[in-house]
Amino acid sequence: xxxxxxxxxxxxxxxxxxxxxxxxxxxxxxIITIHVFGQVGLHFRISVPQILAxxxxxxxxxxxITFRQSRALVWPASAMLTxxxxxxxxxVVGTPPDDPWNTFAWYIFAAVAGLSLLTKYVIRWRGxxxxxxxxxxxxxxxxxxxxxxxxxxxxxxxPLNGWMVASYAIIIGGGLLITRRLRLLxxxxxxxxxxxxGIGLLSLSGxxxxxxxxxxxxCGGDYWRVIVTSPEVLIFLFFMITDPKTVPAGxxxxxxxxxxxxxxxxxxxxxxxxxxxxxxALLAGLVVLCAVRPLVERFMPEPSSTxxxxxxxxxxxxxxxxxPGLGRGLARSALAVFxxxxxxxxxxxxxxxxxxxxxxxxxxxxxxxxxxxxxxxTFPTITADVPAWTTTTTEPAAQAILxxxxxxxxxxxxxxxxxxxxxxxxVDHGDRLAEMRARLAEAEATGEAxxxxxxxxxxxxxxxxxxxxxxxxSLGFESRGTLVExxxxxxxxxxxxxxxxxxxxxxxxxPFGDRWMIVAVLPEAPAP
Length: 528
What we know:
Blueprint: E1 2-8, E2 11-17, H1 23-40, H2 48-70, E3 73-74, H3 77-89, E4 90-92, H4 106-122, E5 124-125, E6 128-129, H5 133-145, E7 150-152, H6 162-181, H7 185-204, E8 208-209, E9 218-219, H8 220-228, H9 231-239, H10 251-269, H11 275-291, H12 293-298, H13 313-318, H14 326-350, H15 363-366, E10 382-385, H16 394-418, H17 421-427, H18 430-446, E11 449-464, E12 474-488, E13 494-509, E14 517-522
Parallel strand pairs: 2-3, 10-11
Antiparallel strand pairs: 1-2, 4-7, 5-6, 8-9, 11-12, 12-13, 13-14
């Protein structure tokens, strides 16, 4: 820091400005660059006023607190990092997309950032803050406000385009330089190695997660690749767990601390089935380890002592020597092997709730119950506005999904006529399944079933992002055409038939990874 002075009301007030060598400025440069990329090329769902609300709130609080403590005006470098870190990860549900100057919910960013900063002065141990401020503030905000109000930035930001390549270069290049200078590179590497191994074990066990940017569950090898190469994970390991004030002082202690953060994060992530829970669990792993850091440090070598040597750590952990100490060394090795095996069993057991999507039993057989074949030749030319599709894949992909949609609609009719809920469970999911179960219950109670046949005249396909929870994306088939509604009695005899135009959006998704299922039918929109 560079000290100067300022006269205020006849008094001389020291002014402490940042030095160009301050690592915090280098971290800030990386984070601000990512913010700029997010606004210009990556389409982050956050506005400039929201980002500024978080940064300015932290800066004002830090300046006021330090002035009260030292009667000096100190550049709030750490506080601004806290604010920009909160703004990088926090998202408020309902923020308008591609509107960089909207002020929607700016106060949530200000509140979360302000509370994050205050933890530095409220929760302390041995004269320093115990938790990484932005980390604990974000975790508390997610858990208290819930997924319908706030959510973390997605693990995956965009397709691997120029903006993503540049982001990786900035994050990895800046992260390596900064952690090396702070002697924290071993900490970051230890976290990533243990974390990658733990996520790999989850992947091999068949773990799955649904995500907004994927049409189907992300499972197995794809889950491992997406998580361990996520730019979000890289930011976490380079710029969040590497806060020098909240990690052990010794080199051995730092490596052990990082490994334990990875273990805690994997164990918390294991039972999560959606991206919201998975990301919050990752962040919560650091909160847990920061809380027990004083206990971890008690078992670590004294910082800068001869025992605090990373090069000698593998040998000490493995055996403890030969000769008279051979028995003790073997016992330590056996204990280490047992601990690793027990940890692996714990990870696999914790992941049982997310053990792969399983389609309803008998789904394949139910697909053969179609009363008549769907003829794709009867469908109109389909238009689409789906960013993931190219012009060469749009029509064939949409045509195939429309065939499935039409089959599902006819199978819904069959379920109502047969009073067979198992058919509904094979073609519907979520809100649509609940709606059709209610219609089936009504048919059983009244003895009359109402079935609907759709003839499509115009279809436009759009991408539908989930609202409130980071679950998988859906496709919306905005359709117009003719609807024939038939009413049957309990013996299957036709009572009445009516026809007329319809204008509805059929929402489909692949919740089990194989077949597109109807998840909603949106109310009719007014005709243009």
